[in-house]
Structures are given as structure tokens and as C-alpha cells.
Amino acid sequence: MKENKYDDNVFFEKYSQMDRSKKGLDGAGEWHVLKQMLPDFRGKRILDLGCGFGWHCEYAIKNGAASAVGIDISEKMLAEAHAKRSSDAISYICLPIEDIAFPPSSFDVVISSLAFHYIQSFEDICKKVYDSLSPGSNFVFSVEHPVFTAYGTEDWYYDDRGNILHWPVDRYFNEGRRSTIFLGETVQKYHKTLTTYVNGLIRTGFEITGLIEPEPSEEMLHTVSGMTDELRRPMMLLVSARKR
């Protein structure tokens, strides 16, 4: 099922006010870790799946990539990406991630940021990414952590005074669709286990080179209200892999 909440006017306006939308990569809480997992972009052909405002494509070109292609289902997101585009070496395609079909060895690096929890089959995407990469190339992505997506509400349990008690985890092994509340709006996502992410890569033929559950940076812990609660459970999962 290919849903596109990001072209909803109300939701898009709320998303546009987030730090990661206004400040770019520096406003993304996981960026201080994710950027350390990225390969050398110099001379490489980059594919960004779920590119949003195009921040990663811009970063790739500024760090020496030969070209960058961004894929996103949202026309509104891509309109912002086009407005920010700094190089003719960047191109954007409005397309669901599930529908990509590139010739073999079209890219040297495939990246994706917080997009795969919106699609049903991770293994199908792994196969398409594997085929589109040249031998020895890299696949780096982030997703919402399975502990974060399992229960579905994506919110804490609180006491009667509004104090955080704990993070609910339930139906962990029952993969599939979850109705969540994000920015005050109902959004459909797909919960997958850690096993599904890891074995999906292995079965496809990837060699896993890194797996990190990122913690907030020291700066964010001291400057962003409520950020210390992010140390109580993992919110994201970052993975790097290499095509054999």
C-alpha cells in the first residue's frame, strides 16, 4: 500500500516546522552518528530513497559525489527539494520507493533516511537496491527502531499527573501496519522486527558493516527540552551494508 501523508496540507505544514525541516541535517538528532557511517562520496553516483527536502542529496554533491538522484512520493517535498537544489548534478523523481526500477550497477551508494517504516516489504526493497548497486558498493539507511514502532501509538505511558512512566512494547513479533500519531495527525506505518531488517540484508547478499542505535548528541541533551528521555529507549536504528 502506497500512502502519501506528506502531501496533506495540514500535515506538511506541521512537518515543515520541525527542526530537521528548517535546519536540515544539523537539525536531525541522529545525523551526528549517521554521517560517520556514510562512505566517501567522491566521484560516486548516489541514490536517496525517500529524499524529502533533498538534504542528503545536497550533502553528497557538496562532498564530491558525481551525481545524486532523489526519489520521493511527495510532490510537496520535492517542490522544496527543487527550490533548494544547488547543482545540476542533482535530479529528483516523484515515485513511490516500491516502484524503483534502475538498470544493474546504476549507483555506487544508496542511502535512505527514515523512510522504510512507511513501506510494507523491506526485503523487496533490499533486492531492488542490491541490483541497482555496483559490486562492492554501499547501502546506508535509518529507520524507526522496532522497539519504537511495535506498540503503534509511538508515545509514552504517563501517570495521572502527566509524568512519563515507561515506553510500551507489545505485539513485537506481529509485524505489519500500525496507525500512529505523528505531529498530531494519524499516520500509517509498518512495524518490522530487527530480525527482518538484518536477515533481509543478509538473504539478499549484503554484508552488514555497521548497526547503531544512536543516542542524542551531548549538545542536544543539554539544549533540547525532554531530550534526556530519549536515553530511556531507542528511537532509531541505523544500518550500513556493502554489496558483495
From TrEMBL:
It comes from the Bacteria. The keyword Glycoprotein does not apply. This is Ubiquinone/menaquinone biosynthesis methyltransferase UBIE. InterPro entries: Methyltransf_11, SAM-dependent_MTases_sf. GO terms for biological process: methylation. Coiled coil: none annotated. Its EC number is 2.1.1.-. PANTHER family: METHYLTRANSFERASE, UBIQUINONE BIOSYNTHESIS O-METHYLTRANSFERASE, MITOCHONDRIAL. GO terms for molecular function: S-adenosylmethionine-dependent methyltransferase activity. Keywords: Methyltransferase, S-adenosyl-L-methionine, Transferase, Ubiquinone. The keyword Disulfide bond does not apply. Residues 47-141 form the Methyltransferase type domain. Pfam families: Methyltransf_11. The lineage of its organism: Bacteria, Bacillati, Bacillota, Clostridia, Christensenellales.
